């Protein structure tokens, strides 16, 4: 028999330095939808804010630079996180050079939305931290990142939590299977396996060969030497998101079927020590796109309330 806990704090005792219970609370906010989900979510967000401020190292951003960062943020509606390199079928691929040579971020095969099935889309995010979690998977120095809200906590909030929510919703549907719950679950697993088996490799294998749980792969970083995160800011001109599973869209994810031409890129964020390198690459392709340091935008976001940071971009999403 499961004990009925009297409070969220009893379920997830937490100290400022202990991120694991905060992650559990985020998952609970997704999974326990029938019992005060907003209460779990609000509490977990507050604790994540405490952890973020306790572990983040602030640096000085002058007023002019802060204003410039705000202007770039204001021009941006969507974000796309990737990295300099990925492994495709065992070979190291220069992702950024390929994007510049093709003049666009092109759709890729994606099996993860059960509503869409196996499709070719570009995955976008409305919250910056959502896309940043995917970008940081490409860092070969994951343990040295100075992030306001850690990579794994961001992934838990935007990606793992909705996955738990969807699992809960799917189980409800599975119970209605004419042959019972077990048959319903087996059908769900078979459909997911079919989509995944159609992929040449898992998305985790694009960045690392480490044997690590998929859920924890975001904070593990990349074992590709010289790899680093890249975050594209994208405007909303002529961008037409397609319908996707509600749990994904509520978390801030969007999918588009058309290539994202480079003219839609408002700015590009890369590690501070890679700004000159990436700026040079863009100028070689006659592109004047602003290239800024991820660390500087982290400083910008650290000046805001944690709720504004985590829910950034979500307020305009229609449920």
Question: Secondary structure elements and their pairing?
Answer:
Elements: H1 8-11, H2 19-31, H3 37-55, H4 63-75, E1 78-83, E2 85-88, E3 91-94, H5 95-102, E4 104-105, E5 108-110, E6 119-125, H6 128-136, H7 151-174, H8 181-197, H9 217-220, E7 229-234, H10 246-251, E8 253-256, E9 260-261, E10 265-270, H11 275-284, E11 291-293, H12 294-302, H13 306-310
Parallel strand pairs: 10-11
Antiparallel strand pairs: 1-7, 2-3, 4-9, 5-6, 6-8, 7-10
Helix pairs in contact: 2-3, 2-7, 6-7, 7-8
Spans of at least 5 consecutive residues with low confidence: 1-19, 29-34
The helicity comes to 40-55%
How much of the sequence is in beta strands?
Answer: 5-15%
State the distance separating the first and last CA atoms: 36 Å
Number of separate helices: 13
Biggest sheet descriptor: 4 strands, mixed
Strand order within the widest beta sheet = 1-7-10-11
**What does the overall shape look like?**
globular
Structural class label: alpha+beta
Give average pLDDT, whole number: 80
Report the count of strand segments: 11
Whole-number radius of gyration?
Answer: 20 Å
Written overview of the protein:
The protein has 319 residues and is α+β, with helices and mostly antiparallel strands. Helices cover 44% and strands 15% of the residues. The strands form four sheets. It has a four-stranded mixed sheet, with helices on both faces. The longest helix is centred in the middle third of the chain and has 24 residues. It starts with 7 loop residues before the first helix and ends in a 9-residue tail after the last helix.
């Amino acid at each position: 028999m499961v004990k009925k806990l009297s409070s969220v704090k009893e379920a997830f005792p937490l100290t400022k330095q202990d991120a694991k219970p905060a992650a559990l609370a985020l998952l609970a906010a997704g999974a326990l939808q029938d019992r005060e989900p907003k209460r779990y979510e609000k509490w977990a967000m507050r604790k994540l804010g405490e952890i973020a401020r306790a572990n983040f190292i602030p640096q000085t951003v002058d007023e002019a630079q802060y204003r410039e960062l705000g202007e770039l943020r204001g021009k941006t509606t969507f974000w796309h996180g990737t990295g300099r390199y990925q492994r495709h079928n065992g070979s190291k691929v220069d992702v950024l050079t390929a994007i510049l040579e093709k003049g666009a971020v092109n759709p890729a095969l994606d099996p993860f939305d059960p509503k869409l099935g196996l499709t070719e889309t570009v995955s976008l995010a409305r919250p910056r931290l959502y896309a940043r979690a995917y970008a940081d998977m490409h860092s070969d120095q994951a343990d040295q990142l100075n992030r306001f809200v850690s990579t794994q906590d961001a992934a838990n909030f935007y990606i793992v939590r909705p996955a738990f929510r969807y699992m809960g919703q799917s189980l409800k549907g599975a119970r209605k299977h004419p042959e019972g719950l077990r048959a319903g679950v087996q059908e769900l697993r078979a459909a997911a396996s079919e989509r995944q088996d159609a992929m040449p490799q898992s998305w985790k294998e694009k960045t690392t060969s480490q044997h690590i749980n998929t859920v924890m792969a975001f904070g593990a970083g990349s074992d590709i030497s010289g790899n680093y995160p890249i975050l594209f800011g994208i405007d909303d001109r002529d961008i037409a998101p397609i319908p996707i599973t509600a749990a994904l869209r509520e978390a801030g994810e969007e999918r588009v079927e058309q290539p994202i031409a480079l003219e839609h890129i408002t700015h590009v964020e890369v590690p501070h020590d890679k700004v000159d390198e990436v700026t040079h690459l863009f100028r070689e392709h006659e592109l004047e796109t602003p290239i800024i340091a991820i660390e500087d935008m982290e400083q910008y976001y650290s000046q805001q309330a944690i709720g504004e940071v985590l829910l950034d971009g979500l307020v305009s999403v229609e449920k």
